[in-house]
Amino acid sequence: MLRLIGALLQAGYLEEWQWYATYSGTPQGSILSPILANLVLDKLNKYVEQELIPEYTKGKRRKTYPPYGALTQAASMARKEGHREDAQRLNRQAQQIPSRDPRDPNFCRLWYVRYADDFLLGLVGTKAEASGIKQQLTAFLQDELKLTLSEEKTLVTHARDERAHLLGYEVHILHANDKHDHRGQRCINGSVGLRVPDQVRKAYCAKYKRKGKPIHLVQRVNDEAYSIVIQYQAEYRGIVQYYRMAYNLHTLHTLRRVMEVSLVKTLARKYKTTCQKIYRRYGTWLDTEYGPCKVLQVVKKQEARKPLYAQFGGVPLRWNK
């Protein structure tokens, strides 16, 4: 293992097909970077898990929020006295405030997750405590690992009103008083939600647009139709599969439409025809596990072998809970 690491550190890198020597560190994007990050930041894991988390863990459960308790008690009394409408009104009021005290000083929790050199800490506590944790991490990384915490990227974020960023996802705390389970209780408040950032969707769409409209990709016009469809589908599927855990995955239908129009225009430019004729020529229905789906499909025939099929679409934008 040490021999392989040493060889990779000395392998150099290619830029525009020209080799350059590596004099220090590792080239950006090297497959060695995550391994070295894990070797070094294992100490960070132990520091957070053995020192910070025990320090910021107290209490078994938040105490009941007094205004909530008063409303539910009043609703119960009204129901016993036969005032059903008053009881329902009081219960609706109670559903608009927390059932547990969000500022209970006797309750605190800290969570931690890391991937390579990207990490996120979730704190149930005050902003002052969050800032204190940031200072402790800064000191530990500087003193123990000789690393500098990026002030630009390391932010203290209010998880309900703002969104933190981790590995291309937006992370925040869900809150919706109108979402109830089968028992009539609020079911998503306090849960962690993952989102596809709006700027990510816009950035991907921009690759296939010019002046706000989808365009053909000149660099692909000379490829065969089968190859063109394969490339578009691979790019689209990769994006959708990466963001499969985002509850707003359905917003990528905008990207699908932009890529589809760009694909059709590329094929139309290749065959010097219209987009309408491309839709008639390649449009078909594909049976999927979620039902029939309209796709663009190209069939590549081969002598004495089964034909090859390439289609764009048919990737469901369903949230993987």
Overview of the structural elements:
With 321 residues, the chain is α+β, with helices and mostly antiparallel strands. It is 40% helix and 19% strand. Strand 3 and strand 4 (118-124) form a beta hairpin. The radius of gyration is 27 Å and the shape is flat.
Fold blueprint:
Layout: H1 2-9, E1 13-15, E2 18-20, H2 33-55, H3 66-80, H4 84-94, E3 109-115, E4 118-124, H5 127-144, E5 164-166, E6 169-173, E7 192-195, H6 198-206, E8 209-210, E9 213-214, H7 225-242, H8 253-271, H9 275-282, E10 283-288, E11 291-302, E12 305-312
Helix pairs in contact: 3-4, 6-8, 7-8, 8-9
Pick out the low-confidence regions.
Answer: none
Rg, nearest Å: 27 Å
Please give the largest β-sheet: 3 strands, antiparallel
Helical proportion, percent range: 40-55%
Structural class based on helices, strands and sheet pairing: alpha+beta
Order of strands in the sheet with the most strands? 5-6-7
Annotation field: number of helices: 9
* N-to-C CA distance: 38 Å
The H-and-E topology, N to C, reads as HEEHHHEEHEEEHEEHHHEEE
Total strands:
12
The averaged pLDDT comes out at: 90
Shape: flat
Strand content: 15-25%
Describe this protein with a few key phrases.
321 residues, alpha+beta, three-stranded antiparallel sheet, 9 helices, 40% helix, flat
